[in-house]
Write a structure and sequence with these properties.
This protein is mainly α. The chain is built from four helices and two strands, in the order αααββα. The protein has one domain: Winged helix-like DNA-binding domain superfamily/Winged helix DNA-binding domain (Arc Repressor Mutant, subunit A, Orthogonal Bundle). It has helices spanning 4-16, 25-32, 36-48, 64-78, and strands at residues 52-55, 59-62. A two-stranded antiparallel ribbon has the order 1-2.
């Protein structure tokens, strides 16, 4: 089970990513109301868990596992 903060990040990345474009740290910072350094720290944590692929200066994308977890979070929030 992911922490609430992790779930917020996964959901935000899922909602913003497209097939062609990763989600930027500035977009996540604006959506989640946190600083870009805090975003970078969390993205590195999520990457170490295999939930995202992160490239500094390019942004983040969900991995297959990350996408599955994000969809689980979104489904739970709809119930």
């Amino acid at each position: 089970m992911e922490t609430e903060r992790t779930e917020e990040y996964l959901e935000a990345i899922y909602k913003r990513q497209t097939k062609e474009t990763p989600v930027s740290t500035s977009a996540l910072a604006a959506e989640l109301g946190v600083t870009q350094p805090a975003i970078t720290d969390m993205l590195r944590t999520l990457e170490s868990k295999g939930l995202i692929a992160y490239k500094p200066g390019r942004g983040a994308r969900l991995t297959r596992i990350g996408e599955e977890r994000a969809l689980d979070v979104i489904r739970r929030h709809r119930i």
